[in-house]
Structures are given as C-alpha cells and as structure tokens.
Amino acid sequence: MNHVTMAYKGWPSGTPITVLVIVIIAVLALAAVIGRTKRK
C-alpha cells in the first residue's frame, strides 16, 4: 500500500476521487491477473 500512498501524495490536491477509485480498481485487477498467472 506504500506505493499507493506515495502516488496519492504526489498528486495535486484537486485530483478527483473518481480518478483515485479508477486507479485502485486497476491495481486490484492487475493483482488478480498476477495471482491467476502464479496459480497456473
């Protein structure tokens, strides 16, 4: 979660929350794909 907090702190204060949510969803999706590849 450290890279997420660092990226959030690096963003402008005017960044919409929706953008943050989209980034979180993308990270979770990427983690799911990595998990699937590791299972195989």
TrEMBL record:
Membrane-spanning residues:
15-34
| Provenance organism | Streptomyces capoamus
Q: Carries keyword Transmembrane?
A: yes
What are the protein's UniProt keywords?
Membrane, Transmembrane, Transmembrane helix
What is the protein's given name?
A: Uncharacterized protein
Its domain of life reads: Bacteria
